[in-house]
Design a protein that fits this description.
Helix content is 34%, strand content 22%. It is of the alpha/beta class. Helix 3 links the parallel strand 5 and strand 6. The chain is globular. It starts with a strand and ends in a 5-residue tail after the last strand. 55% of the residues are buried.
Length: 345
């Protein structure tokens, strides 16, 4: 165990678990954005053929998970664990999807950080020899999140400039032992577990400000633990800080004397929509980082366009209960190092 720990929060994975397959399915608004061509499937309507938005989100999760298994040529019964979660009460999208899939299930709640959390834990399970194949997945839906955390859509409430648009979408990836996925071109080498950080933000319509301190804290911890610098990565990828949150994170890093060059920093919430789509500060939700990672970034790693990235998804750990009680918004960020694997001679 001692040879895998690096500092206070980071673990090295010497067996370099591989991502054997991945998928991303999104809603129509996401499909109209700049990454539309990157996704495996774009739904034609937000209901996804279901009778409620909640069932639509469950359908996204289930369909995305099945598509990843189909790509890998793996049956559900051959997967040793499903790690997943979402934003809805008691992670119902993931739980009900797991009922359909029939895979041993660990339900996770990291809010919008759940994709990074599932990849981190899944990779450690594989590296530790506890599982040979782990499916990591998450989802979100604009309509389910809005009426749970903010206002019913029927009210037509005006959104503030700091608000983000919850992504309707799902992403999933299959983590396997390296010797069982020799053709896989992406591996996981390090995991940095985040701390819960709270600088006192209370505005549920300003997730970026709430999450930025957690992103900065985890990134600084990763650099400290590994002895690396920004130049060691092609990109530092944050999950869904949006335009405001990203600027706040960059300012916090500058204050710590570790200024992150903007050209090495991208945010999934800024990538998934363009200015014409009226998403205000950008995208958010579990499906935001998951769909951008599985729709675009993993493909770039697989083909060698990118060689090493730090994928760091952020999550605001609020609930309607805490908001109504006037609580502040604690947040967290988990980081995973993803690298290109060259072809063996």
């Amino acid at each position: 165990m001692a040879d895998k720990r690096m500092g206070a929060q980071t673990v090295a994975l010497p067996s370099t678990p591989r991502l054997a397959a991945w998928s991303a399915i999104v809603g129509p608004k996401e499909g109209e954005g700049p990454l539309g061509a990157c996704f495996d499937r774009v739904e034609t309507d937000d209901m996804c053929g279901q009778e409620s938005f909640e069932k639509a989100e469950r359908s996204l999760f289930t369909s995305c998970a099945r598509l990843t298994l189909d790509k890998a040529g793996i049956r559900p019964q051959d997967v040793h664990a499903l790690l997943g979660g979402d934003l809805l009460n008691q992670i119902i999208s993931a739980g009900f999807a797991a009922r359909q899939l029939g895979i041993p299930f660990y339900g996770l709640y990291g809010a919008c950080s759940t994709m990074a959390e599932s990849l981190a834990l899944g990779s450690m399970l594989v590296d530790g020899g506890h599982c040979a194949r782990v499916l990591c997945a998450t989802s979100s839906h604009f309509s389910t999140a809005e009426r749970q955390y903010r206002s019913p859509l029927e009210l037509g409430t005006q959104r503030t400039p700091t608000a983000q648009w919850t992504v309707t979408g799902s992403g999933s990836a299959l983590v396997c032992e390296a010797n069982a996925a020799r053709d896989a071109r992406v591996c996981v080498t390090h995991v940095t577990t985040g701390k819960v950080i709270d600088l006192g933000v209370k505005d549920a319509n300003n997730m970026g400000a709430a999450m930025a301190p957690a992103a900065a804290d985890t990134l600084l911890a990763h650099l400290q633990d590994t002895g690396r610098d920004y130049a060691d990565y092609d990109l530092i990828v944050t999950g869904d800080l949006g335009s405001l949150g990203r600027e706040l994170m960059l300012e916090l890093l500058r204050r710590e004397g570790r200024a992150l060059p903007p050209e090495r920093s991208v945010d999934c919430g800024m990538l998934i929509y363009d200015a014409s789509q009226d998403a205000h500060a950008g995208g958010s939700g579990c499906g935001c980082s998951a769909s951008v990672l599985c729709g675009k970034l993993l493909g770039q790693l697989a083909c060698g366009e990118l060689h090493r990235i730090l994928f760091m998804a952020t999550g605001a750990l609020l609930s309607p209960t805490t908001t109504m009680q006037g609580e502040t918004i604690p947040s967290i960020a988990h980081a995973v190092v993803l690298e290109h694997v060259g072809k063996e001679e």
